[in-house]
Specification:
It is a single chain. With about 450 residues, the chain is of the alpha/beta class. The chain has a single domain, classed as 3-Layer(aba) Sandwich (Alkaline Phosphatase, subunit A), CATH 3.40.720.10. The chain is built from 12 helices and 18 strands. An 8-stranded mixed beta sheet has the order 6-5-7-1-8-10-2-11, with helices on both faces. A 5-stranded antiparallel beta sheet has the order 13-14-15-16-17, with helices on one face. Strand 15 and strand 16 form a beta hairpin. It is globular, with a radius of gyration of 21 Å. The two termini are about 30 Å apart.
């Protein structure tokens, strides 16, 4: 961290102490379930019983019905989640760019205020290469939700119970890929979850190499799409079951008292809804609409639902506000427990595309191909886009971003062949679906 950043964080901590505390600051648990579509959870109206634990959890929390990710890519979305800045502000929009040391991460802010900080993540795009490790006392990779479920209590047991903690837990098991268990690459999960919603679902897919199937377009029949969705839903049930066990252990250990808990996702998933598997839904709502379920440390507003649009950049301001830390006017978001405007502007970047939302209007710009708009209330399936004036898009995007200029990201060396091979094994990279384009 640069001297300037250290000074800023030191001043932040000093201001926080000077303000005093009416009560002990809450601990914070932030769970990001990679690739989890909001509309595949019961609390968001899904008909399958994919998420019994999260549905129960939601009844004691606040459910944000229209939460947006800034990009259907783990790297970009988590950088927004952990900085509170839109992609065009933090600048980490390509795989060879890392966060400027002048921009503090949430873990750095909380560490400076006396929090014990734990980061447990699946090693894909969450990596110290991009700056994610900054501010964490423990920054540790895991290979599955089962391993994470064992690591969390073990790491918490090392903490000083007299001080609050921040736990960031990133889970990857809903994502497609060669996870530790499961016979099929696409949405593999261990028994009984692989066949939980459809017996031999994997066997119903075409007998093609997983990477060939993943990059195909319009190949699957309706019955095969149903099998694919059943595999994906089984992965959700797998993660949900493990979260139920983890939270039971945390409750018994007293780790949930006076604790803010946030459950969300970095992006959704395509599920061949538009004939394609790769791309995580791209800029369609199946890619951008994510779950956001927040349990206040004192149980305030439990059981309520919020219709106003929100985004992942709201997470940092929310944690700062509930931790009695000074607000940062530079952040793009606002506290989820404060007043939320229905006409707020939300923007995101997934090169070569960008979007702006002012509910219910959504505008897309594809660099070099013009701008399109759609009304998400009248056309929730986004089937009838209409051309819009590029000047309107630029004006709304500029308004969403504000006038403040942020430090540029750092340029990184190209990935090693080993790193690149690891990503390819997860379905990333190659041709039109390269990570610098549509499949992130």
């Amino acid at each position: 961290m640069s001297p300037r950043s250290r000074l800023s964080l030191a001043l932040l901590a000093a201001l926080a102490c000077a303000c005093g505390e009416a009560e002990r600051r809450p601990s914070v648990i932030l769970i990001s379930i990679d690739t989890l579509r909001a509309d595949h959870l019961g609390t968001y109206g899904y008909e399958r019983d994919t998420s019994p634990f999260l549905d129960r959890f939601a009844r004691d929390a606040v459910v944000y019905e229209q939460a947006f990710t800034p990009a259907p890519w783990t790297l970009v979305a988590h950088m927004t989640m952990l900085t509170g800045l839109f992609p065009a502000q933090h600048g980490v929009v390509q795989e060879e760019l890392a966060l400027s040391p002048e921009i503090p991460l949430l873990a750095e802010r909380l560490e400076a205020a006396g929090y014990q900080t734990l980061g447990l993540y699946y090693p894909c795009w969450i990596d110290e290469r991009y700056g994610f490790a900054r501010g964490f006392d423990v920054f540790r990779a895991h290979g599955s939700v089962e391993e994470a479920r064992a690591l969390v209590p073990a790491e918490l047991a090392r903490l000083d119970r007299a001080r609050p903690y921040f736990l960031f837990l990133h889970l990857f098991d809903v994502h497609d890929g060669p996870l530790a268990t499961g016979a099929h690459m696409l949405y593999a999960s261990p028994p009984p979850y692989q066949d939980f919603f459809m017996p031999d679902a994997a066997g119903k897919l075409p007998a093609l190499a997983p990477d060939v199937l993943w990059k195909s377009r319009g190949l699957l029949t309706s019955e095969q799409v149903a099998a694919l969705v059943a595999l994906y839903d089984g992965g959700i049930r797998h993660v949900d079951a493990n979260l139920a066990l983890l939270f039971g252990e945390l409750e018994r250990g007293g780790w949930l008292a006076n604790t803010l808990v946030i459950v969300t996702a970095d992006h959704g998933e395509a599920l061949a809804q538009r004939g394609k598997l790769s791309g995580h839904g791209d800029m369609a709502q199946e890619g951008l609409h994510v779950p956001l379920i927040v349990r206040h440390p004192r149980g305030e507003r439990a059981g309520t639902r919020v219709a106003e649009p929100v985004h992942l950049g709201d997470i940092v301001p929310t944690i700062l506000a509930l931790s009695a830390l000074p607000a940062d006017e530079r952040l793009a978001g606002q506290s989820l427990f404060g007043p939320l405007a229905t006409q707020r502007l939300i923007t995101g970047t997934f090169l070569p595309e960008e979007y702006v939302v002012r509910w219910p209007e959504k505008w897309l710009r594809h660099k070099g191909l013009g701008c399109l708009g759609v009304d998400l209330e009248r056309d929730p399936d986004e089937l009838d886009f209409h051309p819009i004036d590029p000047k309107l898009f630029k004006r709304l995007q500029a308004e969403a971003l504000g006038a403040r200029v942020f430090p540029a990201p750092l340029q990184l060396a190209p990935m090693s062949s080993t790193e690149r091979d690891a990503l390819r094994a997860l379905g990333y990279g190659g041709g039109d679906d390269d990570e610098t384009g549509a499949q992130k």
